[in-house]
Amino acid sequence: MTTVLRLTPDRPEPDLIADAAACLRRGGLVAFPTETVYGLGVAALDPAAVRRLFAAKGRPADDPLIVHLASLDALAPLVTAPPPAVAALAARFWPGPLTLVLRRSPLVPDDVTAGLDTVAVRVPAHPVARALLAAAGIPVAAPSANLFSRPSPTQAGHVLEDLDGRIDLVLDGGSTQVGVESTVLDLSGKVPEVLRPGAVTLEMLRPLLPDVRMRVAAAAAGPQRSPGLLTKHYAPRAPLTLYEGPADRVLARIRHDAGLAQASGRRVGLLLPDDDAAVTAARLYAALREFDAAGVEEIFASLPTTTDGLSHAVADRLRRAAAGRVVRCA
Ligand code: TXA
Ligand code: MG
Description:
This protein has 10 helices and 15 strands.
């Protein structure tokens, strides 16, 4: 049985938060809103509970989890020799959509890190997440609260679509704001690398980390990969084809191909990004799930025409949803 508790997003009810925190401390699975997407939380230092979480999501055990903290103060026991940049990054971007990959301490179970010698950590900004973490008083491992390979949930209803009956509790705090997952920044190597683009962009990081760069996707399998490198991640049920190239050519080609598909009796969905990538990001995963619910059989999508803000994160998620189905228009 999954219980749903509806909270006031910006002033969550303390009694409901206390119930959810107690559930987490007992080893329960609690979905909660963050500013990016809904997370599925579990006591990070309880290996048996972490294994139940992997089972509930159908997630492969070689995909490590992000540990969510109430504040920077809770970081020290989990990591060894954090680089000096952590303090400045935390001061500038926490609470917020930035995940740091750091060398871990022996306290963090292998089940959380997939056996890696690093751990991913972040302090989320959503008032419900902050209240829950503060009340629980423990580190909370939380992947996105979707079934493996489904788009991340941005509403409590999405969580229930995937996980009803498989988890203990859902805290319904309405729609999330950012809509795509946090930026993952690896600080464990010589050069800081962004493994997954998000709302905290390279441009925003560069004043603090002049040599920061995007990691180029490696072809090899294994736990080092960021989740985004799994081709089936972020995917709707219908195949999504991504059209790239000059905007006018892309539109003409989509109109043509979608028209053909429609004429042959197929139900089609169009995903044409807004001029503001933040608007597209906020709507992206809900749109993919709406296509599924409407029985759409084929999705036609184009990339953002912008390069600022969340443009890069949106393009990254669309490419992964397309899983190689890309049409280049010249
Ligand atoms: O915005 C977010 O980050 C959301 C909310 C709930 O906080 N969480 C999220 O978690 O997107 P998840 O599990 O769906 O994606 C986290 C990814 C992992 O799949 C993993 O590849 C990467 O972060 N990651 C975690 N630990 C890592 C590590 N030690 N080294 C490299 N990458 C790591
Ligand atoms: Mg995920």
